UniProtKB/TrEMBL annotation:
Residues 531-540 have a biased composition (Basic residues). PROSITE patterns: FAD_PCMH (PS51387). This is FAD-binding PCMH-type domain-containing protein. Residues 1-23 form the signal peptide. Residues 519-540 are annotated as: Disordered. InterPro entries: BBE, FAD-bd_PCMH, FAD-bd_PCMH-like_sf, FAD-bd_PCMH_sub1, FAD-bd_PCMH_sub2, FAD-linked_Oxidoreductase, Oxid_FAD_bind_N. Residues 76-246 form the FAD-binding PCMH-type domain. Belongs to the oxygen-dependent FAD-linked oxidoreductase family. Keywords: FAD, Flavoprotein, Oxidoreductase, Signal. GO terms for molecular function: FAD binding; oxidoreductase activity.
Length: 540
């Protein structure tokens, strides 16, 4: 790649740059005015010389801008004025300092699967972490150093080929840190806990541009917070994670498709399988993960959802079979099984690079619920609602109602107080994703359906406080439901915010401290007016 000045300069862009620059540039100090509408050329001229050779800076007129900003789910879209791609970790503090000096909000992104409504309050500079993609297995074979922009597929493949595994999310195309900073749910959690349980240390750039290392021994309170509430505290430029011997050479998988008349039998078998939420000693860690969905498979029916279910087992078919006997006994429309290396498991269970899960550009209006046991009556109500809505809105045909059941031994083995991830007691994770081509006239119906489904799940579990896995949050749920109801958790997190991000600059991803000034950096401030409330305080 050539040096960074890779903007497609046009006279129009130059004029835009001149028109939008603040009348009083405020580099080298705090800015009274946001310069958020800086053109990429201006940023390249001012920031570019400070950065390393392979950085890129793109503005909306550059051809690369579209691919750098395309989102998995465009329903909640942050407004991106410019994209800066650091090429080295040392570039990141300089970018953050520049953004602060110009009153420009900034947000780190890797794979752009973030899907919470709070992201749509963002208007500023995307720090695209994708060039920070190193994966370096350490000589002692106990850990790996990863760049801040790595994603699941690459890690799984590189480690596996070298004889190792580590925890990541279950979907190949999703970033590592997006999930992990919120805990991170994945197929190895029965062994090693949630993804962040394997963190050893993180290199973090704080809101003021200071680069620090965070671990059990350095800034241990912040290390605690990064494991579950990390989106609120900094940009992770790299991290060291534990790795583990890969074990077996192949994993066994089996998928089933059942028609709706088997629904009760399926969920009863599933509750037996995880022993009504008491996984210990019952739901083996080898029986790593199973997930299902209500979905339309048009070759079976265009009007009635089927129940798709996928099991994966770290070992052979023979070892897995005793756990699958109960499901084999339920007559399926079809089944498929086989043995593949671990990096191929996403591809055969519907979460691979070529799966619909990795297609960008469709709305996925979602709401989640964390559960311990399937309420079979509720599952039927949600299924009936599914068919009703598909009939009413054929545009929603690609909608899925998703049920995830993780092996939980490794998660439960860790003291819940030792990280900010608060939901170790919820083995089951469910969410609906109302899926359709972007079309504002359908949005209200999509939200209503998604909310009704979530509310049914919660009503069916009256003994549980509603929980929201932060990475599946819609964005309007209570802070307690995301970060925990025990008062000490939010008190501790808010204390750490005061210490490490007093101006609440990291407030776009399900913030602990709400963005009090939503959209305040938008249009009115672009006209050179003073930035508003404390939430954007760098400009004050
Ligand atoms: C198809 C799909 C499958 C999913 N599967 C799983 C799964 O198996 N397990 C699971 O736990 N979650 C899963 N999720 C949820 C996922 O955790 C979140 O959507 C996550 O935000 C995606 O991370 P990303 O890097 O892809 O997205 P991005 O939009 O690039 O990042 C999301 C947020 O993470 C933060 N962030 C990203 N990189 C950095 C960094 N280097 N430093 C600091 N902050 C950073 C930022 O706040 C950013 O806004 C899935 C989501 C989707 C859409």
């Amino acid at each position: 790649m050539a040096r960074l000045y890779r903007f497609a300069v046009s006279s129009a862009l130059l004029l835009q740059s001149l028109a939008c620059a603040s009348p009083e540039p405020c580099l080298n100090g705090l800015c009274q005015f946001t310069r958020n509408k800086l053109a990429s050329r201006t940023v390249a001229n001012e920031l570019g010389p400070q950065l390393s050779a392979n950085c890129n800076i793109y503005g909306p007129n550059d051809t690369q801008f579209g691919s750098c900003t395309a989102r998995y789910d465009p329903f909640f879209t942050p407004k991106i004025q410019m994209v800066v791609q650091p090429a080295t970790e040392e570039d990141v503090p300089k970018i953050v300092e520049y953004a602060n000096a110009n009153g420009v909000p900034f947000l780190a992104m890797a794979r752009r699967h973030g899907m919470t409504s709070t992201l749509s309050e963002f208007d500023g500079m995307q720090i695209d972490m994708s060039l920070l993609d190193k994966i370096e297995i350490q000589p002692d074979g106990k850990s790996v150093i990863l760049g801040g922009g790595v994603f699941a597929k690459n890690i799984m493949e590189k480690l596996w080929n070298a004889g190792y595994v580590t925890s990541s999310g279950s979907t190949s195309c999703v970033g590592l840190l997006g999930p992990a900073l919120g805990g991170g749910r994945g197929r190895l959690e029965g062994y090693y806990g949630v993804v962040s349980d394997s963190f050893l240390k993180l290199n973090v750039v704080l809101a003021n541009g200071t680069a620090i290392t965070v671990s059990e021994t350095e800034h241990p309170d912040l290390f605690w917070a990064m494991k579950g509430a990390g989106h609120n505290f900094g940009v992770v430029t790299s991290l060291e994670m534990k790795i583990y011997p890969r074990g077996v050479d192949t994993w066994y998988y089996k998928t089933y498709i059942w028609t709706q008349d088997k629904l009760e039998a399926v969920f009863e078998a599933s509750n037996n399988f995880h022993n009504d939420g008491n996984h210990a000693g019952h739901h083996l860690k080898e029986m790593a993960f199973n997930m299902g969905s209500y979905t339309i498979i048009s070759s079976i029916s265009e009007t009635e959802g089927v129940i798709f279910w996928s099991f994966v087992y770290r070992g052979s078919k023979e070892e897995a079979q005793p756990y699958l006997d109960a499901f084999d006994a339920i007559e399926a429309v079809s089944t498929e099984d086989g043995n593949v290396p671990y990096p191929e498991i996403p591809g055969v269970s519907g979460t691979g690079m070529n799966s619909a899960m990795c297609d960008y550009g469709l709305n996925h209006v979602h709401y989640p619920a964390g559960l311990k046991v399937w309420n079979v009556t509720t599952q039927r109500q949600i299924y009936d609602l599914y068919n009703e809505k598909i009939a009413q809105y054929p545009e929603f045909q690609r909608t899925t109602v998703n049920m995830e059941d993780y092996s939980h031994e490794g998660v439960n083995a860790i003291d819940p107080d030792t990280s900010a991830y608060p939901w170790r007691d919820r083995g089951l994770l469910s969410f609906i994703a109302v899926t359709y081509d972007p079309n504002p006239s359908l949005d209200a119906a999509a939200i209503a359906w998604a909310k009704e489904t979530r509310d049914l799940w919660n009503a069916g579990a009256p003994d549980l406080l509603p929980s929201t896995y932060v990475n599946y949050a819609h964005g309007d749920e209570s802070t307690e439901s995301m970060y925990g109801y025990e008062p000490w958790r939010l008190e501790k997190l808010r204390g750490l915010k005061a210490q490490y991000d007093p101006d609440n600059l990291f407030s776009y991803y399900n913030p602990i401290i709400p963005n009090l000034n939503p959209r305040s950096t938008h249009e009115e401030n672009f006209q050179g007016r003073k930035i508003g409330a404390k939430s954007r305080g760098r400009g004050q």
